[in-house]
Every structure is written in C-alpha cells, then in structure tokens.
Amino acid sequence: MVTLTDKAVGKLKTLLEQDGKPDYGLRLKVVGGGCSGMSYAMDFEEKPAPGDNTYEQSGVKVFVDPQSEQYVNGAIVDYTEALTGAGFTIKNPNAKGGCGCGSSFTV
After folding, report:
1. Greater confidence, 26 or 95?
2. Cβ atoms 90, 29 nearer than 8 A
3. β-pairing, 53-57 with 76-82?
4. Beta bridge partner(s), residue 62
5. φ, ψ (nearest 5 deg) of residue 77
6. What CA–CA distance (Å, rounded) separates 107 from 99?
7. What pLDDT does 105 receive?
8. How far apart are CA 35 and CA 53, in angstroms?
9. Which CATH number characterizes residue 31's domain?
10. What share of the chain is helix, strand, coil (3-state, %, to 5)?
11. Total tally of structural domains belonging to the chain
C-alpha cells in the first residue's frame, strides 16, 4: 500500500485541476537508474494498467505496477515546501540507503 499525506493530496488535486485532468491518478513507478541504483518516477495517467494496484485517498488515485509495488509497499508520499525548493518526497521503509537528493535509493 502507498499512502499520501494530506499535503500531497492537496497538491496533487491542485496539479490535476490545473492540467485539466481532475479524474486522472498518480502513477508511481520505480525505475533503474540514479546514483543509488533505483529511482522514483511519477506522472499522471487516466486509468490504471492491467494488473496495477490502485489506491485511493481523499479522492486521489495512485497506480502502482506489480514490479514497482515490491519496492514501494508501505511508502508515504509527502509534499514539502522550503526555502531551497518544493516537491514531492517519498518515505520508503524498503529503502536500505539513498542518495543525498532523495530521488534514488537501494534495497
């Protein structure tokens, strides 16, 4: 299961509305690459692909393919704003290590 914080839900709803895609969901995927070996990818998609795990929280859908699910099960997606920038962060209990920027990880 993937969980969204209230801040992430709010930001995703805003972005989906701005893009004219209020009924779309967030695709969360793990891909090879990054300085630690694996990276997260996120995008908006209209509907889940066959075999996807679909989660919904406060009206926002999250689609995770079975391959990525093993790496992000239990993860929490948050949205943070700071003087140095803003963006989505993923707190992943499956990650054994990661890079300084937080965009890649190892298991």
Report:
1. 26
2. no
3. unpaired
4. 26, 55
5. -95, 125
6. 12
7. 54
8. 27
9. 2.60.300.12
10. 20, 45, 35
11. 1
